[in-house]
Amino acid sequence: MLEASSLDETIFTPSTKEPVGEHDRNITFEETMERVGQRVAEKMRDATIAIYNRARAIAENKGIIIADTKLEFGIEGDDIMLIDEVLTPDSSRFWPADGYEPGKTPDSFDKQFVRDYLLNLPWDMKSPPPELPPEIVKKTQEKYAESLRRLTA
């Protein structure tokens, strides 16, 4: 596959929710079932894929590719709840459809801009991150606002 290529089918890639300051860890679907049981794991997987596929179709009609997204679930008794943010530029990768080309790093309307900035700093990625300069904050706000504008136009 080329960079930014589209997958033929939506996939579900579960991960853990680690304590603050630690990175979530990718796990297999089998590990998910061991942690929450088969019924709950299948329900979370099916809901994730359905939500993503619906959002992807809506966004594509608005000129945005949702390359991936993260959904977080909580369990209380027998209830499975979708919690935290959903389909935001912080939890998803939003790419403008115009100019998209497999094999090329896509432009984005998401937090990748901030990640790229931080990756180019002499920062150990463990200590608290440095304060973002005003121009990086402004450009990030503009990217988020543009995704909102396109999605709600």
Features:
single chain; 153 residues; alpha+beta; two-stranded antiparallel sheet; 4 helices; globular
- The total count of helices amounts to 4
Report, as a whole number of angstroms, the end-to-end distance: 33 Å
Q: Helices and strands: which structural class?
A: alpha+beta
- Average pLDDT figure: 94
Can you count the beta strands? 4
Task: Describe the 3D structure.
The protein is α+β, with helices and mostly antiparallel strands. The chain contains 4 helices and 4 strands, in the order ααββββαα. It has helices at 29-36, 38-61, 112-119, 134-152, and strands spanning 64-69, 72-76, 79-83, 92-96. It has a two-stranded antiparallel sheet. The protein has a two-stranded antiparallel ribbon with strand order 2-3. A hairpin with a 2-residue loop joins β2 (72-76) and β3 (79-83). It is globular, with a radius of gyration of 17 Å.
Q: Gist?
A:
The protein is α+β, with helices and mostly antiparallel strands and 153 residues long. The protein contains four helices and four strands.
